[in-house]
Design goal:
Structural class: mainly beta
Number of strands: 11
Strand content: over 45%
Helix content: under 10%
Radius of gyration: 14 Å
Distance between the termini: 40 Å
Shape: globular
Order of helices and strands: EEEEEEEEEHEE
């Protein structure tokens, strides 16, 4: 069974940066396309970004406007989300997700919000 564990969340001031990590265990990370989502209180879970199994393709929600960057290190079984210029509206629980689809970039299911696996989430709070 694949397990995803997020870390790196916490409290930040507006304008600061945070880097989230998602470490995968149980199978090699290279078997999965990966993605990040977030869910703010009272809102639906929102797709943020996805990356193909070897990092050759990346996708972002338009709302991020270039502030966030997804990356992966398959040797470390870890995916990252670099978040810059944080805003109070970025406050949410952030989740990573994995999907084993091998066709195309493998990110379709993630971008539809239907990955095979989810992490438990890490809280990010941005104060003004």
């Amino acid at each position: 069974q694949v397990q995803l564990v997020e870390s790196g969340g916490g409290l930040a001031q507006a304008g600061e940066s945070l880097r989230l990590s998602c470490t995968v265990s149980g199978r090699a990370l290279s078997n999965y396309a990966m993605g990040w989502f977030r869910q703010a209180p009272g809102k639906e879970r929102e797709f943020l970004s996805a990356i193909s199994r070897f990092g050759t393709a990346t996708y972002y929600a338009d709302s991020l406007k270039g502030r966030f960057t997804i990356s992966r290190d398959n040797a470390k079984n870890t995916v990252y989300l670099q978040m810059n210029s944080l805003k109070p509206e970025d406050t949410a629980v952030y989740f990573c997700a994995a999907d084993g689809t091998v066709s195309g970039t493998g990110t379709g299911a993630i971008r539809r919000g239907e990955p095979d696996f989810w992490g438990q989430g890490t809280q990010v709070t941005v104060s003004s």
